Amino acid sequence: MDIKMIAVDMDGTFLNSEKTYDRPRFEKLLDRMDEKGIRFVCASGNQLPKLEYYFEGLTDRMTFVAENGAYIIHKGEVLYSAVMSTEMVQKGIDALQAYSDTPFLLCGVNGSYLKKGATGKYADIFRQYYLNIEEVNNLHEIEDEILSFTTIFQVTEVPEVLEYLEERIGKHLSVVGSGFGFIDILLPNVHKGLGMKLLQERWNISVDACAAFGDSPNDIEMLKQVTHGYAMANAEPSVKAVAKYEIADHNTTSLLDTIEQLIGL
């Protein structure tokens, strides 16, 4: 097996429940990947600053497919950005506000934006996941290029919310569950699989030479875009259905063990 690119989701996959990973071991694996010319890709629904935080000191040695594929960065260079038009941003805001008063974020190139005065556990969760939140009076007047929306509900509520959003804005925007109650809204056909495809084309890497790891519905397209797709044991059934392999959950060493095998360490 001649692997040339390995992509990992973060929450529920690369990170354990404490939002950490075995950094010393990973650095050894990254050294080996560098030696063999294997590309390492961090593919997540998170914004770039959060991903860079997890890999501080290593960011110039990997590629980031952030915002579920809407923003791709390689060694500081923007390879791709899927920016919403003003009309699409307004459609997203109107749909979310019409459904409930649950807070949501607009995620842009330069920051993430929350309606001023948002309180409660969901607003607190946003502040945990996003490092650069700016509270604004009017979400319609943000001076930034918007890449996506993020909102969060109880996990049991997600199917109903997805159905509503799909009916309300599905003709114009893509709606996807990102796990742990998160729901993301992006431009149509923007997802982690697109990110993988663009990188494969850029570096002339075949799908047979790629591996990917995931656990949530927003990982499905990425797993379909590689021959060697791995679902975590904690993954949702829809993810396991498209992955070629299943490994132990994210609180074990299974992901790093598998990468070690893939790169022949």
Automatic annotation (TrEMBL):
Organism name: Jeotgalibaca porci
Keywords per UniProt: Hydrolase
Transmembrane regions listed in the UniProt entry: none
Name of one Pfam family that matches: Hydrolase_3
InterPro entries: Cof, HAD-like_sf, HAD-SF_hydro_IIB, HAD_sf
Source species, domain of life: Bacteria
CDD domains found in the cross-reference section: HAD_YbiV-Like
Protein name as catalogued: HAD family hydrolase
GO cellular component: cytosol
PROSITE patterns, per the entry: COF_2 (PS01229)
MF-aspect GO terms: magnesium ion binding; phosphatase activity
